Amino acid sequence: MRLQIYQLNTGYISITGPRSLPMPDTEGFYPGPEWQNTRTENYNDHEYEVTEFGRILYPAMPGELKIGAWNWQGMVRWHDAWRRVQSAARMFTTPEIAITVMSLPEQPEGFSGAVGKFRFTAQLAQTTLTQGTPVRLTFTVSGEGNPNTISAPHLPDLTWAHMSGPETETQQEEQSTEVTKTFSYLLTPLEAGAHTIPSVPFIFFAPVIKNYKTEQSPEYQVTVNAADGGNTLVAVGGSADAQRSQIQVFEEKILPIITEGDALLSASNANNARLSTFALLSPGLPLLVFVVLAVWLSWRGRLSRDRGYARRFYAKNKCLKALKAAQAAAEPSENLDVLLKVFIADMLNINEAGLTSSDVEGLLKERKVAEDSIAMTVRVLRACERARYAGRSASPEEAEALCTAAENVVEQLHAALQETQS
């Protein structure tokens, strides 16, 4: 969405408005990055100074949506023929923009919600590996679309290696819809030999072709060289020093030359050391049990005495359980707004009766919740209210989208309100 103000670049005309211009209503859209810039542009043989406000919007649900009119009051100043400054108040407005958001067709297996125009690439740092030495495997998704709907690729199980991660990084191009999201894994080979890293698919919906599209990463053939020391790997919990301090008896009549005196005591004292450690710790076990029990009883007591704490503690699970029950009902969208308002009231320890979306917006601002979380909450609440009073049954796709959006709101608000109250 681009909002532009054209002003003749003559030095005799100027426009002033509020310190912070109000933005159009974008209910039903998830807000992305914003920007503002100023440039000059020639239009109808006149030079204008153009101030542009940009915001990337992602549709959050199917149906008939709209971007509201852009309305704001400003002051126009100019010089008359006698070079006197004149001014007049003006109301600036743009028309509404109607947008139809189509439902996605039946989703294929492996689709995680990404919609847009994407490229999918992979990079393995090297193909000749060493047993026990990790190497980085990176998958990159770049293109145009909501980065929050791009999930990590599903990797197959590798019996010959351990995979950890991913580490995720998102980069949004300034003043552009272009986004890049990377998923970085650490692959640690455990078995020497020749192995294969299979091709990994990335499935997304491409609006241009109105169908799902699958991009594949390349298949990698790797060679894993054995680690030094007879293919013996030191795993977590062990050490190379422990390996060296062991005594090996080759034959009954051949004894090893012992160069470290500590090794003589390692085997004979192992059991005594374990017994001594247990004997040392055992007197403290009753005290530990007592402390844990006291903390648990104190927590249970607070649940029974502090009603606000109890409401916050049970709010998330209670709401998610109710949302799942509503999703299975004949009319899933009938009470979604009520369930969300009850959840918010429980988290804030207030009465949910008569709570409106505007009330919710004000309460969340008082708690200093992030603006994007507040905007998403209000949009979903109003969408649920519209679905409830629409006079028609919501389609299965619309109901599913509303339930999913409501669950996302619960997760975000629970985390945000926990932070503000901690």
Q: How does this model look, in words?
A:
The chain is an alpha+beta fold and 422 residues long. It has three domains: 100 residues, no CATH class; 110 residues, Immunoglobulins (Immunoglobulin-like), CATH 2.60.40.10; 117 residues, Four Helix Bundle (Hemerythrin (Met), subunit A) (Up-down Bundle). It has nine helices and 17 strands. Helix 7 packs antiparallel against helix 8 and helix 8 packs antiparallel against helix 9.
On the 0-100 scale, what is the average pLDDT? 81
The succession of helices and strands, N to C, reads: EEEEEEEEEEEEEEEEEHHHHHHHHH
What's the number of extended β-strand segments? 17
In the sheet with the most strands, the strands line up as: 9-11-13-12
Beta fraction: 25-35%
Brief characterization of the structure:
The protein has 422 residues and is of the alpha+beta class.
Q: How would you describe this structure in keywords?
A:
single chain; 422 residues; alpha+beta; Immunoglobulin-like; Four Helix Bundle (Hemerythrin (Met), subunit A); 3 domains; 4-stranded antiparallel β-sheet; 3-stranded antiparallel β-sheet; 9 helices; 32% helix; 33% strand
Q: What layout of secondary structure does this protein have?
A:
Layout: E1 2-8, E2 13-16, E3 29-43, E4 46-59, E5 63-67, E6 71-79, E7 85-93, E8 97-101, E9 116-124, E10 128-130, E11 135-145, E12 161-172, E13 178-189, E14 193-197, E15 201-206, E16 211-216, E17 220-225, H1 240-244, H2 262-268, H3 270-281, H4 285-305, H5 307-327, H6 336-348, H7 357-366, H8 371-388, H9 396-421
Parallel strand pairs: 10-17
Antiparallel strand pairs: 1-4, 2-6, 3-4, 5-8, 6-7, 9-11, 11-13, 12-13, 14-17, 15-16
